[in-house]
Design goal:
This protein is mainly alpha-helical. It is built from 17 helices and 8 strands. A two-stranded antiparallel sheet has the order 1-2. A two-stranded antiparallel ribbon has the order 3-4. Strand 7 and strand 8 form a beta hairpin. Helix 5 packs across helix 11 and helix 7 runs parallel beside helix 11. The N and C termini lie far apart (84 Å).
């Protein structure tokens, strides 16, 4: 016999299964018959006849929403300006071709096109540093500035003296050691920016500005060199009627502003001071578009010589820029010599050819085309035959190339992850590469000699006694006791450089407690003629902490 509990629970299970079956079966039958022909929900002749509205209250809500939408649209059309939906905008958000702009902005009713003018501050940044921070300018500033504190501040602002705000001396294309150098060099560089007749030299590596505006880096960062402004046409002519002039002065938040003003206010008859003042008052003057054409401050209305600005498409209010024809002609000759192997000259020569010229050239060279086609087929067959015998080598080469690619990408990501704010990826990569190479070279040398030197450093590195002999960017350090670029840095003046026979050309941070300017880490005098000093990293430090993130 079975236990009573077992019988009970089996009866409960059968009852549940029966109940579930009837429910499921009933639902299945109902769903099967729901839309069958002849049923009350028959859909064979269109919508079901017994349908009804179940959401009557939604109808007035929908009507009210539509009425509100229409009212808001009418208000917008009456009080707003529909042109703001599609008009281009200038650098401050003003709408081109619109009379009333937000926050009582400029009336741009007669200026429907968004075009480009020089961002003067960006273009002259390097020239300003060379002008105000060169050796000749430094001699002049030492005579103009009234106190030692002001002189120390100037030396720090120009990075002529190691101090906390600088990573090294400025690189601005060569030092200017005499008043004649300032007059000749700065005038030549600025004429390329102000004189349309010399614009072709601006984008040439052989010009006074060197490769500053002729490299891919310039064109990849081109947005920082131009202002977007609203004009009547993409490229209005300067002309003589109503044209304005603009004399550049560094913005008041620039570290060079007070030194610039000090030179302009100077009354000294010293040749260094007079030459510097003459350059500041004459070389930095630009021609600007008249107010009727460019209703902004003159500094925002300076066209760049050598640049043609045209509509992106015919009738468009958007403009784009390109190198002017005369500049292309000058650059073609220069670039052809450097890029002859890339066929630059042939490309420049065929840039204006028509389709008919192309067809005629093809017909004239049809025999060459046939020969090339046959040879391509033969070489293809030979390649396939050789591939049969060298497939293993090709596979291993592909595997090696893949591993190498992963390694290079990994190095790139490592460099990118350590890139500091304000630093370029190439500079960071160069710095990391130098640090790795120097660390590896030192490790091998220590292993061979069996000796090592501590690279420990705390704070600003005044306690550093290591033997780093290269700067962050790989420049070789000069021996402290024999270099003559900054003769004050000797063991006799700074205890951190003693003893001289062991310090040699190792990076240090020499300063006295009374010095106004103190570097924030170790540095050295470099062998690079254009960079007097630069910061260093202790050997083994691949990437230091970023100061600004």
């Amino acid at each position: 016999t079975r236990p009573a509990s077992t019988v009970f629970w089996r009866r409960v299970a059968r009852t549940c299964r029966a109940a579930m079956g009837s429910v499921i079966g009933g639902d299945k039958d109902e769903s099967d018959n729901k839309f069958q022909q002849g049923s009350e929900n028959d859909l064979s002749n269109g919508p079901a006849q017994n349908r009804g509205c179940t959401d009557v209250f939604c109808i007035p809500i929908f009507i009210v929403a539509q009425v509100v939408f229409i009212v808001v649209t009418i208000i917008g059309l009456s009080d707003g300006n529909q042109e703001k939906l599609y008009r281009p905008r200038d650098y401050q958000g003003g709408y081109c071709g619109v009379e009333k702009n937000w926050n009582n902005g400029t009336n741009l009713m007669g200026q429907p096109k968004v075009s480009y003018t020089m961002n003067v501050s960006s273009f002259v940044d390097v020239v300003v540093k060379q002008t105000i921070c060169s050796s000749s300018a430094s001699d002049a500033m030492m005579m103009i500035l009234p106190s030692q504190a002001a002189k120390d501040e100037y030396l720090c602002d120009c990075c002529r003296s190691p101090c906390a705000r600088c990573n090294g001396a400025y690189e601005f294309g060569g030092d200017l050691s005499s008043p004649a150098d300032i007059t000749r060099t700065i005038t030549a560089r600025m004429q390329e920016l102000t004189d349309p007749q010399k614009a072709q030299q601006l984008f040439s590596p052989g010009g006074a500005n060197g490769a500053q505006f002729s490299t891919e880096r310039f064109w990849s960062e081109v947005t920082k060199y131009f202002n977007t402004v609203c004009l009547p046409e993409c490229q209005p002519a300067l002309g003589d009627s109503g044209s304005r002039s603009y004399t550049y002065v560094p913005p008041q938040d620039s570290v060079f502003y007070k030194h610039w003003e000090a030179v302009l206010d100077a009354t000294s008859g010293n040749s260094d001071v007079v030459a510097l003042k003459d350059v500041l008052t004459s070389a930095f003057t630009f021609s600007a578009l008249p107010t009727t054409v460019c209703p902004y401050h003159p500094s925002l209305c300076v066209p760049l010589p050598g640049i043609d600005v045209k509509e992106t498409t015919a009738g468009s209010d958007y403009c784009t820029f390109a190198i002017a024809a005369d500049v292309i002609g000058a650059l073609g000759d220069v670039a052809a010599k450097a890029f002859e192997s890339l066929g630059f000259e042939a490309f420049a020569g065929t840039a204006s050819d028509s389709f008919g010229d192309w067809l005629g050239d093809f017909q004239a060279s049809i025999d060459t085309f046939i020969i090339v086609a046959v040879l391509s087929f033969v070489f293809g067959i030979v390649f396939l035959v050789l591939l049969r015998f060298f497939i293993a080598a090709c596979v291993w080469l592909a595997v090696f190339a893949t591993v190498l690619l992963f390694a290079l990408l990994g190095f790139f990501l490592f460099v990118k992850s350590n890139q500091c704010s304000g630093s370029g990826i190439l500079d960071t990569g160069h710095q990391v590469s130098v640090a790795i190479i120097v660390a590896g070279k030192t490790a091998v040398s220590d292993a061979i000699s069996g000796q090592s030197v501590s690279e420990a450093m705390t704070g600003d590195g005044v306690d550093y006694r290591g033997r780093q002999e290269h700067t962050r960017l790989g420049k070789k350090c000069l021996v402290w006791e024999t270099q003559d670029r900054a003769a004050m840095y000797r063991a006799a003046n700074y205890t951190v450089l003693s003893p001289a026979n062991t310090t040699k050309n190792s990076c240090r941070n020499p300063y006295n407690a009374s010095d106004a300017n103190k570097a924030k880490t170790i540095w050295c005098i470099t062998s690079d003629p254009d960079v007097m000093w630069e910061e260093c990293l202790p050997i083994g430090v691949i990437q230091p902490e970023c100061l600004h993130g």
